[in-house]
Design goal:
This protein has eight helices and no strands. By secondary structure, it is mostly helical.
């Protein structure tokens, strides 16, 4: 994994943790992966060395300085933050951590039909409810969700001015 990919993966894990989608231990695992990929900072080393039993308490304190030292800011306000959340969820599905249906459901539940970048995923979640009345199969809807997840993860990331973390 390139250092850029590792940075994005760590940024996504931090964001997913901040919205309650993954556990603090997953952030620690992400920090370890970032170190292995070649990212390095004193705070990242401390975060990666965090004991899993203490991760729930320590990540809250250790994550902001690690991200800051690496120049990463996953906690964005407003629409940029929502789009970052949608992209992180899509990347999580592409990594095999969610099924396509779970991704569509989580996007729909989190944003409804109000986030233009992820609107198609909300529509596809609705489509699961009408499959028995149409001519499409769950596999076809899954394939459309996969295509949308790929589009989301390839969509240009916005890097707003740094703000205080929302942790």
């Amino acid at each position: 994994m390139s250092t850029e990919a590792a940075a994005l993966a760590l940024q996504d894990r931090a964001l997913l943790w901040s919205i309650g989608e993954i556990r603090a231990t997953d952030v620690v695992t992400g920090a370890c992966g970032a170190l292995v990929a070649g990212l390095d900072s004193p705070a990242l080393r401390i975060l990666a060395a965090c004991r899993r039993a203490e991760a729930d308490n320590d990540v809250l304190r250790l994550l902001p300085p690690a991200l800051d030292e690496l120049g990463l800011t996953p906690f964005h306000p407003g629409i940029a933050g929502q789009e970052a959340e949608a992209r992180a969820l899509a990347a999580w599905m592409l990594a095999g951590e969610l099924t396509p249906r779970e991704l569509a459901f989580r996007i729909h539940r989190r944003f409804g039909h109000e986030l233009p970048l992820a609107e198609r995923l909300a529509e596809l979640d609705d489509e699961y409810d009408t499959l028995e009345h149409g001519d499409r199969t769950p596999a076809q809807v899954d394939a459309d969700i996969l295509a949308e997840a790929l589009r989301l993860t390839q969509h240009a990331r916005v890097t707003p001015e740094p703000t205080d973390p929302l942790i």
